[in-house]
Amino acid sequence: MSTFPVTRLRRLRRTSALRSLVRETRLDLEDFVFPVFVAPEPLRNDALPAMSRLTVEELVAEAEECVSLGVSALLLFGLPEEKDELGSGAWEDDGIVQQALRALRARLPELLLITDVCLCEYTSHGHCGVLDGDEVVNDETLELLARTAVSHAEAGADAVAPSDMMDGRVAALRGALDDAGFESTPILAYSVKYASAFYGPFREAADSAPAFGDRRGYQMDPANVREALRECEQDVREGADLLMVKPALPNLDVIRAVRERFDLPVAAYNVSGEYAMLKAAGSAGWIDERAAAVESLTAIKRAGADIVVSYWAKELAAWL
Predict the structure, then answer these.
(1) For the CA atoms of the chain, what is the radius of gyration?
(2) Is the pLDDT at 1 greater than 70, yes or no?
(3) How far is CA 281 from CA 58, 275, 285, 286, 290, in A?
(4) Using an 8 Å Cβ cutoff, are 294 and 264 in contact?
(5) Does a structural domain hold residue 15?
(6) Helix extents (H) in 110-137
(7) Which side of the chain, N or C, has fewer Cβ within a 10 Å radius?
(8) Mapping DSSP to helix (H, G, I), strand (E, B) and coil, where does residue 112 land?
(9) Does the annotation mark 193 as catalytic?
(10) Within-domain flag for 12
(11) Do 105 and 60 meet the contact criterion of CB atoms below 8 Å apart?
(12) pLDDT tens, residue by residue, 108-154
């Protein structure tokens, strides 16, 4: 008589149909947000196509293609015509993101439009707030971020996403939006944004690298997870509607911790460096790019993310 265990876990792995039947984590295109860069002048990036800068007209065409593929949400980043010390292009009525929002809203009313709210793309020094010498001043920055969020809502944004990591920014945005009649506009807070080595391609695409120093004085130390939960708690108290962890892949444990602690929808940003590494390795023939991307995105979902912001979203639409 055989002493082999009655349970054979390989039984449900035997065929593709069986594996699909019992798969625990699935990728649904409706859970993905595609980040885009809009600028006065285009800049094509052939190696990393999703990191290209698009004019407003090009962005509308790109968005139409996304909708046809089933991508239903965009996250907008803007590069202004000119930069200054305060980043005033961020909240101008005819700013680049505001122009893009109006054009997209007119052409694709069904598309979900989320805007990044930060000053780094707009300031001449590349930091995310007002400077006093070499120091980013927290409280003076909040008013400018709030003005930016309101201008985005006025131009047609469905949701705003503050990524600056200033203390109190969610409360400042919530108050300003409510006062301006946008009490129904949700805030997707970059609640856990680490000072990461994985942002390089983004900073080139967004022309947002700091002119001096770094952002470790306001973005989080990657070594900390208890602090991440405190950041989330504060944002929830201040009125955040969704929480985000960035970057995603180095912080799967943090995504899981946030998911287990909070009932709000959790987003994770699959950032530019993660995208670039797989693109480069795939181009070199070291990995199967498509398989590695799908595996990575599945891991982010498995960790607990309800929403994934990813430069793979458009390609994923074709793959799925």
Answers:
(1) 20
(2) no
(3) 29, 10, 6, 5, 11
(4) no
(5) no
(6) none
(7) N
(8) strand
(9) yes
(10) no
(11) no
(12) 999 999 999 999 999 999 899 999 999 999 999 999 999 999 999 99
Mean pLDDT for 210-232 is 94
Q: At 190, list the tokens.
A: 């970059």
Domain containing residue 295: 27-319
pLDDT tens-digit profile of 184-200? 999 999 999 999 999 99
Q: pLDDT at residue 102 above 60? A: yes
Q: Cα separation of 72 and 66, whole Å? A: 7
For the segment 24-65, what is each residue's pLDDT rounded down to a tens digit?
999 999 999 999 999 999 999 999 999 999 999 999 999 999
How far apart, in whole angstroms, are the C-alpha atoms of residue 296 and residue 281?
14
Catalytic residue among 83, 193, 301, 314: 193
| H helix runs in the chain, sequence order | 16-21, 56-69, 96-107, 138-155, 169-179, 200-206, 226-238, 252-261, 272-283, 289-303, 313-319
Long-range contacts, 52-56 (Cβ 8 Å, 24+): 52/205, 53/79, 53/205, 56/96, 56/99, 56/100, 56/103
Residue 9 lies in a domain: no
- Sole residue written with tokens 């009655």: 6
Percent of the chain whose predicted confidence (pLDDT) is above 70: 99
State the total domains in the chain.
Answer: 1
For the domain that residue 101 is a member of, what is the CATH number? 3.20.20.70
Q: Tell me whether residue 246 is one of the annotated catalytic residues.
A: yes
Q: Can you say how many angstroms the Cα of residue 115 is from the centroid of all Cα atoms in its chain? A: 9
- Active-site residue identified among 246, 279, 301, 314: 246
Distances in Å between the alpha carbon of 16 and those of 13, 22, 148, 238?
7, 10, 49, 47
**Distance (Å, rounded) from C-alpha 36 to C-alpha 51?**
7
DSSP 18-73: HHHHT-S----GGGEEEEEEE-SS-B--SSSGGG-EE-HHHHHHHHHHHHHHT--E
Does a structural domain hold residue 10? no
